[in-house]
Structure formats: structure tokens, C-alpha cells
Design brief:
By secondary structure, the protein is of the alpha+beta class. It contains ten helices and six strands, in the order ααβββααβαααααββα. α5 packs antiparallel against α6 and α7 packs antiparallel against α8. The chain is globular, with a radius of gyration of 28 Å.
Length: about 280
């Protein structure tokens, strides 16, 4: 019984019938509308709750601020745009997430890693072979990071997350195929030769095989591995990790478990690594 029914005087025969067929239809419509509204509100509340839980549980690299992507990063482009063209100015202010997270795999003998598996500090690189800022970082900062790795102080693990499409994914597969011949870093350096990125025919299957020849790899094995399920699985695993942590722009990094977005100056990485090394002593 509704609140209205509970307070109104009981109808008498003089008042006429309690309801007409039209009254019943209107009452049913009102009741149905109330339930629909309640259901919509409930579903919206559940959706917001689930979204909040997912964001809180999985995101370690912060999303781009409302004003655009962090400086020194490359984001997925619309189909009508040329892939890989810089979308921001020169790298500037560091975008850093202070929450610590350890996603290092530390697999002994990993051919796409550098430095000891048990090094005190880790650097995970989330990259794309069509991203100009990734090439810039590889040219300017990677040598210093490799020096730390060679000294046993740093573990570097490379993950291509391929935010710029099919050519990026094919190049990432080629880098994995090269790693199966212990040629990852040599091939990787050719993909980013001179701090530049390759385009068009250079990222076709034939172009990537020609690059394998330059790297001194067995091109027949390389061609087989390029299309293998093993290589495809590795590429997919790295892409999925990038999605799970919210790395939607490149380059992104986890330095000693701390998220950094963009091709920041070498000093930014050195400072974080030195601080982590001091804490580990």
C-alpha cells in the first residue's frame, strides 16, 4: 500500500468505483517508471564503484593530464594522422609517480634484458619503435643506463607496448626474433639508429629481414622466428602488461619501482637510481 493509500479516507459507494481501467494503466506505468529509474541508478552506481576499484588496484603509471600528453611522450594517433609524428614539445618537467611497484621479471639469461638478474635496482622500459622520443631516449640516456647495468648496479628489462599500430608490432616481433639469436641489443640499436625511427618499407617484413642481415643474424632463422607463435606470445605479453599498468604513452618507465613518463633528461634517471642504490646499501 502506497503512502497515499495509507492516509486517504476509504472510498464509499457514493465516491464511485475505486479505479477505472485508465486509472489502473496510469498507476502501472508510474510503478514501472519508478523501477526503471531505480535500476538505472543502481547500475550506474555499480559501474562507478567497479571503475574506482580497477583504477586503484592496477594503475601505477599516471595517465596524461587534461592539458594533453606528458611532454616527451608519444601517444596513439588518429587514423588520418601520420604515425609517430611528435605530439608534444621537447622533454621538460618530469612526470613521476611516487607509488613503488616491482614488475621486474628478473629471468636469468633473458636476452631482452641487461645487467644481473639480482641487481639492486631495476629499470623497465615501455617503448615503441615508431616513437621519436623513444629513439631520442635510446640515443641520449640508454648508454648511461647500460653502464650502470655493466657495473652490476642496474637490471634493465625492455617491453615494447606498440601504441602506434601494426608496424610497431612487427618491429617489436623482429626485436624478439633477434633476441632468440642473442642479438636483441644490436638489432634494437639499428631500429633506433642515430636516435631516429624507421618508417614505411623499413618496417615491412623484407625491410626487417634486411636489418637482421646488417646485424649479422641468420636471416633464414630470423624469418621463421618472426612469424612464430613463441615470438607472437612474447609481443602480446608485453603489450598486455603495458595496458594493465596504464602505460598508454611512450616512452614510459619504472625506475626502481617508480613510474616516470617521457624521454626525461638522463639526470632524472641517474638521480632516482643513485637514491635507490643508497637505500639498498
Amino acid at each position: 500500500m502506497s503512502e497515499h493509500d495509507a492516509t486517504a479516507p476509504a472510498p464509499t459507494p457514493q465516491d464511485g468505483p475505486i479505479s477505472t481501467p485508465t486509472d489502473d494503466a496510469r498507476g502501472a506505468a508510474r510503478s514501472s517508471g519508478q523501477w526503471v529509474a531505480f535500476a538505472v541508478v543502481l547500475l550506474l552506481g555499480l559501474a562507478l564503484l567497479i571503475a574506482a576499484v580497477v583504477r586503484g588496484a592496477g594503475q601505477t603509471v599516471p595517465p596524461a593530464p587534461q592539458g594533453g600528453p606528458p611532454v616527451g611522450t608519444e601517444q596513439p594517433l588518429a587514423p588520418e594522422e601520420q604515425p609517430g609524428q611528435p605530439g608534444a614539445g621537447d622533454p621538460g618537467e618530469v612526470v613521476e609517480e611516487q607509488i613503488l611497484v616491482d614488475l621486474a621479471r628478473r629471468i636469468p639469461g633473458d636476452p631482452m634484458a641487461a645487467g644481473p638478474a639480482d641487481a639492486p635496482v631495476t629499470l623497465i622500459v615501455y617503448s615503441d619503435y615508431q616513437c621519436p622520443y623513444c629513439g631520442l631516449w635510446a640515443e641520449q640516456t640508454q648508454p648511461t643506463m647500460l653502464a650502470y647495468a655493466e657495473a652490476g648496479a642496474l637490471r634493465i628489462e625492455w617491453r615494447d607496448i606498440n601504441v602506434l599500430g601494426a608496424d610497431s608490432r612487427r618491429a617489436a616481433a623482429a626485436a624478439v626474433a633477434a633476441s632468440l639469436q642473442d642479438g636483441f641489443w644490436e638489432y634494437h640499436d639499428l631500429l633506433f639508429e642515430g636516435g631516429e625511427v624507421r618508417r614505411g618499407n623499413e618496417l615491412t617484413t623484407d625491410g626487417l629481414i634486411a636489418l637482421a642481415d646488417r646485424a649479422g643474424l641468420d636471416t633464414e632463422q630470423f624469418a621463421r622466428d618472426l612469424d612464430s607463435e613463441e615470438v607472437a606470445a612474447t609481443v602480446a605479453t608485453n603489450e598486455e602488461e603495458g595496458r594493465q599498468i596504464g602505460a598508454t604513452s611512450t616512452p614510459s618507465f619504472l625506475v626502481a619501482g617508480r613510474g616516470v613518463i617521457g624521454a626525461q633528461p638522463t639526470e632524472v634517471f641517474v638521480e632516482i637510481i643513485e637514491e635507490a642504490l643508497a637505500e639498498a646499501r
